[in-house]
Amino acid sequence: MFWNLFKKEFKYIFRNITFYIFIVVVGFFYFSEFSQSTKIENLKPSTPEELRAQNKPIWYGTKETVDPKKEIREIYMNLYRDYQSGQILKDKIILNVNVNLSEEEKQYIKEAMDKIAPEEYLEKNDEKLIKVSYEEYLNIVRDLDKKLGGATFYADKNREGIVNEPKTYEDAVKDYKDLLEKDKVTNAAGRLFSDYLGITAGVFPVFLSAFILMKDKRNKMQELICSRSISSYTYVLSKYAALCTVLMIPFLVFASYATFTFYKIAKVNNYTIDMLAFFKYTFYWIGPTILFTTALGMLISIVFNNGIIAIPIQFILWHSSLLPLSGDYSLSKFVIRFNTLGEYSNYIKWSSSIALNRIFYVIVSIILALITAYIWSKKRGVVGERIK
Predict the structure, then answer these.
(1) 231 neighbors 347 (Cβ within 8 angstroms)
(2) In the chain, N or C: fewer CB atoms in 10 Å?
(3) pLDDT number for residue 388
(4) Quick check: 247 and 294 in contact, CB under 8 A?
(5) What mean pLDDT value characterizes the chain?
(6) Is the preceding omega at residue 166 within 30 degrees of 0, hence cis?
């Protein structure tokens, strides 16, 4: 019965105009964002002299700051900005939000700044003005995080996200070598592919999932729905599985197209590539996002008996996951962002956090789908009753 319902739903989705709009959106992100960011001729870094000759800025991106003095400088300036704005960014379970500071909390920030360096440090980037050791500085910002209620970007797990410095030419050359030798070009491109196209997976599936359990009532299928020969779990999970499968198809099609494109480039330039790279990252990064977005849309629609409500809720959650562009893979982020081509060493540093995030959302998605089926069984009532 599950397989029959799966096939029925699978075929039905291909008659839904919303699905084809979704394909257009995915295609738009592929051609306007991803394909424009992976031009091979732009990968090799120019020397500072070449950039000067072309009147271009000498800029190779940013990297995490490892110099303690530079880190203190970055945090000090961030403290000043928070103090002046009267707001602070907090890492909530679901959303990263700006929270207004009370006068007492602003005073905590001012006291932390005074302990680290005098006010003239704002104008003079003089390391001699720093009054504390690195360990003392860490204790100050950790204590400040506690006083501000925790979950601020001064906490150990969040601080790296706001501490960075410009890359050197040597850094850029190393990144380029890693791109060719360790990432085999396509693994780096696969991550960027999943970054851009994963944006669409984080919100647009809700336009299908939020109404998938509503349409049978509109199509006068109550007799089938209320039949006790079909369990609620079979009914709901078959629809869920069919929708997730169909939603993956556009991503796999574009992953195939990208693989073919890079195969041609590799043949001309004598690069070694990973032919499975785009597919690996599509399943690994985009797959869990689709599972979660679809499950959440179905759950919200059945709880409120209204699919429209799921759309703004999903949009808010999606918007909260779009930033930062890399470096935050906490469990509150269901869209994976790694908005750069390359940076193999940076990816390796975050790989375990990304793996935990993806496993978490697969598990959560299954739980949400089961909860949806349970609620559906309660709403469906006994044999012969209409859906409530």
Answers:
(1) no
(2) C
(3) 47
(4) yes
(5) 89
(6) no
Residue with tokens 């031009």: 39
- The 10 Å Cβ neighbour count of residue 8 is 12
Q: Report the alpha-carbon distance of residue 241 to residue 228 in Å, rounded.
A: 21
- Could you give the CA distance from residue 114 to residue 222 in angstroms, rounded to a whole number? 69
Kindly state the tokens that stand for 144: 């400040």
Lowest-confidence pick of 113-117, 147-151, 224-228 = 224-228
For β-strands 96-100 and 87-91, DSSP reports them as antiparallel
Q: Is the dihedral of CA 47, 49, 51, 53 positive or negative?
A: negative
Q: Which residue has the tokens 């809700």?
A: 206
Output the CA torsion 42→45→50→51 (10° steps): 80
What is d(CA 240, CA 227) in angstroms, rounded to the nearest whole number? 19
Q: Are strands 62-64 and 164-166 parallel, antiparallel or unpaired?
A: antiparallel
**pLDDT of res. 94:** 46
Residue with tokens 């203190």: 72
Nearest to 254 by CA among 12, 29, 16: 29
Structure tokens at 301: 């629609």
> Higher model confidence: residue 320 or residue 31?
31
Could you give the CA distance from residue 16 to residue 239 in angstroms, rounded to a whole number?
14
Q: What is the pTM assigned to this prediction? A: 0.78
Closest to 115 (Cα-Cα) out of 91, 139, 150: 139
Assess whether pLDDT exceeds 50 at residue 387. Answer: no
Structure tokens at 265: 């480039």
* pLDDT tens readout for residues 46-93: 999 999 999 999 988 888 888 899 999 999 999 999 999 999 988 765
Residue 379, burial from CB neighbour count under 10 angstroms (0-12, 13-18, 19+): middle
What DSSP line would sit under 111-160, residue for residue?
HHHHHH--GGGGT---GGG--S-HHHHHHHHHHHHHHTTS-BTTSHHHHG
Query: Which helix (H) or strand (E) is 91 found in, with range?
Result: strand 87-91
Q: Which residue has the tokens 């050791």?
A: 133
Residues 6+ apart with CB under 8 A from 256: 278
pLDDT at 162: 75
Residue ranges per structural domain of the chain: 2-41+185-380, 62-166
